[in-house]
């Protein structure tokens, strides 16, 4: 299952087959990944997945098992070429955790036509998924301010997408994940609270026994644990929790009801019981708007699930992978509504000396940077792959997380708003 | 990566840890998977993923690598128990391709508390994803009538979710997928057309050369292929395609613009060129509504991407996994808004003699079936796992597809409508 060569569309392979008998197959091409627009009303996007693209490239190999599938519709020449396939080109792109806007050249693949076209589906799958999750998660992290978010949405998305979602959410600034595979694979801190099933499990012939459940939890996990207090009656649940754990209890979690009202009630009750340090975790269909609406409430930690792993209304980033240059000649589709700009592009972001960004400038690669009227510019593309191998000094997950943190504070103030609106900064094309 | 044991939430493991020192860990429990409601306005849901759940159970094992992650927060007793973990319980459930409604007991897991609680995340991830895709795809297949749909959305979703999406879409009646891994793993027929990049790749110093691209495609793939005619000018593209391929060309594809208007123009042009048998494939942001709106147009095949793999507005099915019985005693959470009904449940669907279904009846397992007033009933749950092993004679993918076909024609006529509304049939609870 580690092999990624068949995470590809049928037509990529037939296009290679049709190309191989012609010079086109081996022409030097440039492919670009970009999003024509941001999801409805969003002010910015967050790049994520680039690191996974680089990892999966190494597993993009056609072995005997993969070839057996392709032999159904490929000739011997194509099969022979695929057997030897190793991506040998260069890739540049926006680093993970970089903000992006409509048209941003997020990834630039330089390779022969045949080598490059074959990667379209895999690259887009990864970037479209991971960037959608990171973009939604970043809004939630902004809305939460200094309060940490635990990502706990694994059960609401595909089991493998869940792992990548945890990774993307971590880039976006989420504090921890419930997903253990993400902890193993990516080192994302894992965390958990308690389940209703656990409390319900202590039901005996005499009925429920919440205190027995809480006592068992404390016995195994210590008083620093988080108790789920809303299985039966919340007020009784909080009383039971503190009775059993004492006022040093780490946290209580509320997973249903009017979370704002309940958080205030529970805070008052905890304080009256002397548990002034016991934190309140809230969860239950939270999205960035619900998080923001709880700003004034005594909430310490948010648990976010469904809305995070489904991109909060935008489950895919809508990025496309387009051939933009063939042997140095810009090319572009001309059909209505889906036009794109030919030619390889370089992107910089221009900021005031204060650090606030003003615009993204996209110009033809190789051309001089246009006049930026005294603004400070920063190159957005970095080397990711050189001659098929990962470039040196690639940023890691922690770098990506830090980079996004800096990026978000560089947005004009309205750019962090949750309300629908235009991209936070305009994109200026300077294409000769 | 085949191991699935860590596709689990941190708290499932800590709950096991807290339970192990108490009788609860080994009590006979029943867990149920159900959806409290259908996505907004949907009339029915389609179960998918059950077969994958059974497959992944066999890979849910804690080996040395998995244990190394858990040792960070587990004691020796828990680790020892996890090392020996083999699910040894029974699972019954709705077959893949079965319709479901709010409250339908889609999966029933009978096991000790500890064995059962550990599977919550994996089971929900699979069922929530696959059922969301199948439910959306079934609406598209209905809207398309007798015209086939090719699923080509892999690039818009996580690379592994893409494979499962193809599988779920196939259950829903989609004819083929672009995804080669789905062809390998599940035997879903794969299909492809042509890429804009291919046509653009034939750009030379003298400019574009669409005819050269088409000729190369015919040379490799034969006249039965599908030509993408909207890279430059569609009318010129159709002319070039027939000039090069002759009137026996298999199909042309239109991927942009007003698809209804263009389909009519292209049909007229093809017919005037004698290519009366050349089919028209349309694609480009199609969902069930766009498909329905093209009913009167001369479209032969739909290519559907984004909306299918993202569940057309409902990317997760919202199913939950709840402990409903402990040692024969029904248990249920009592908190507001998230109540559930305790006790193991049996479900039947009642139909008129004509086959049209009238209601779903859910009663306590073991109780006699309530009066159905002369309606014909069908049991909805089948044995899926017995003592931890797959049950005999499990339905395969093709069975699931056929089963859904029969299910859809059993819906009252308004149940197949695309408009928002109530579930197609009511659910009647008869719980003593």
TrEMBL record, chains A, B:
<dbReference type="GO" id="GO:0034355">
    <property type="term" value="P:NAD+ biosynthetic process via the salvage pathway"/>
</dbReference>
<dbReference type="GO" id="GO:0016757">
    <property type="term" value="F:glycosyltransferase activity"/>
</dbReference>
<keyword id="KW-0808">Transferase</keyword>
<keyword id="KW-0597">Phosphoprotein</keyword>
<feature type="domain" description="Nicotinate phosphoribosyltransferase N-terminal">
    <location>
        <begin position="6"/>
        <end position="128"/>
    </location>
</feature>
<dbReference type="InterPro" id="IPR006405">
    <property type="entry name" value="Nic_PRibTrfase_pncB"/>
</dbReference>
<protein>
    <recommendedName>
        <fullName>Nicotinate phosphoribosyltransferase</fullName>
        <ecNumber>6.3.4.21</ecNumber>
    </recommendedName>
</protein>
<comment type="similarity">
    <text>Belongs to the NAPRTase family.</text>
</comment>
<keyword id="KW-0662">Pyridine nucleotide biosynthesis</keyword>
<keyword id="KW-0328">Glycosyltransferase</keyword>
<comment type="pathway">
    <text>Cofactor biosynthesis; NAD(+) biosynthesis; nicotinate D-ribonucleotide from nicotinate: step 1/1.</text>
</comment>
<dbReference type="InterPro" id="IPR040727">
    <property type="entry name" value="NAPRTase_N"/>
</dbReference>
<dbReference type="GO" id="GO:0004516">
    <property type="term" value="F:nicotinate phosphoribosyltransferase activity"/>
</dbReference>
<keyword id="KW-0436">Ligase</keyword>
<comment type="function">
    <text>Catalyzes the first step in the biosynthesis of NAD from nicotinic acid, the ATP-dependent synthesis of beta-nicotinate D-ribonucleotide from nicotinate and 5-phospho-D-ribose 1-phosphate.</text>
</comment>
<dbReference type="InterPro" id="IPR036068">
    <property type="entry name" value="Nicotinate_pribotase-like_C"/>
</dbReference>
<dbReference type="Pfam" id="PF17767">
    <property type="entry name" value="NAPRTase_N"/>
</dbReference>
<dbReference type="InterPro" id="IPR013785">
    <property type="entry name" value="Aldolase_TIM"/>
</dbReference>
<dbReference type="GO" id="GO:0005829">
    <property type="term" value="C:cytosol"/>
</dbReference>
<dbReference type="InterPro" id="IPR007229">
    <property type="entry name" value="Nic_PRibTrfase-Fam"/>
</dbReference>
